[in-house]
Recover the amino acids of this structure.
């Protein structure tokens, strides 16, 4: 590790996750991209070590993160063995199941068979006895909600997970499954949802407000809108951007002149705050205390350091809030 243990946690903020006793760092590291079989293991290790050195204690995975599915968990398992052996009790490790993972009728969804089998596979890939948070990755309309809830509850009682989370559940879906968790006494603590300045769905459907009032944490993914809320697109679409090199999650037609104008206006405000656009966008998510943690991704360690730098200015004046709303309108 690069930073002494005495200073590792000094800069990071840690927030209670809903009504639980678990605290998550304001910034968590997601391994959705750049941890698959086509990536450099040395670079992965550098990213994870740098994150931990800067107080990021939460590492978020899923069974199908790759490529190939399972590769991110396998690579993270190697990193745990080579770099984090003595630090397991200082880490929060989460994984998920819900999307297509293996062929046949039992490799996705929300059935007890799939959820239990998938977690067993995940634990083997990472070399762990348990994960701290196990998520159902998506609602499954073809499986009774009671079955999914009871399967997740049973997983906690088996000792293979300490807490339960859900992901991509909207407000009404969250209410429905949380009622089952209340009946069962399941330690359900968090919903993982997409949220950014450019994607405010959890505000519109009331999930953000509901979770805050009912002791449910929210951790957000895609907080930089697949890189749009960085300086990468201020002058158009770069040749080496994700749009041009991947195109699965961000399409070229999403980058309109109207959007570019908004991004440039936001960037100007960020500069006045002494921040990059990315830092301001991350800080904005945490502006009112309703969000527990922001999930970042990284292709290199320096991006982790830059993103954690947003902690230097988390406050927004009323004028700044108003300006942001006017720009985004």
């Amino acid at each position: 590790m690069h930073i002494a243990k005495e200073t590792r946690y000094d800069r990071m903020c840690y927030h209670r996750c809903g009504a639980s006793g678990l605290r998550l760092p304001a910034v968590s590291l997601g391994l959705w991209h750049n941890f698959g079989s086509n990536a450099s293991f040395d670079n992965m290790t550098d990213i994870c070590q740098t994150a931990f050195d800067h107080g990021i204690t939460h590492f978020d995975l899923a069974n199908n993160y790759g490529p190939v599915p399972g590769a991110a968990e396998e690579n993270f398992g190697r990193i745990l063995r080579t770099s984090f052996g003595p630090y397991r009790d200082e880490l929060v490790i989460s994984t998920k199941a819900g999307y297509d993972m293996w062929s046949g009728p039992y490799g996705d969804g929300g059935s007890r068979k799939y959820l239990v089998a998938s977690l067993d596979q995940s634990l083997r890939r990472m070399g762990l006895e348990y994960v701290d948070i196990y998520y159902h990755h998506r609602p499954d309309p073809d499986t009774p909600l009671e079955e999914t809830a009871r399967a997740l509850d049973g997983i906690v009682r088996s000792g293979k997970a300490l807490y339960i989370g859900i992901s991509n559940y909207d407000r009404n879906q969250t209410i429905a499954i949380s009622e089952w968790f209340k009946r069962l006494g399941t330690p359900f603590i968090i919903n993982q949802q997409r949220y950014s300045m450019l994607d405010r769905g959890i505000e519109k459907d009331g999930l953000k407000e509901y979770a805050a009032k009912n002791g449910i944490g929210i951790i957000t993914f895609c907080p930089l809108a697949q890189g749009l809320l960085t300086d990468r697109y201020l002058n158009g679409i770069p040749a080496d951007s994700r749009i041009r090199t991947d195109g699965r999650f961000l399409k070229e037609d999403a980058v309109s002149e109207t959007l570019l104008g908004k991004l440039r206006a936001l960037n100007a405000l960020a500069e006045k705050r002494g921040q990059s656009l990315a830092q301001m966008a991350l800080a904005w998510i945490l502006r009112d205390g309703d969000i527990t943690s922001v999930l970042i991704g990284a292709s290199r360690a320096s991006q982790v350091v830059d993103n954690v730098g947003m902690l230097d200015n988390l406050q927004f004046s009323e004028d700044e809030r108003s300006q942001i709303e006017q720009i985004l309108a």
User: Anything to note?
Assistant: The CA atoms of residues 63 and 69 lie 7 Å apart.
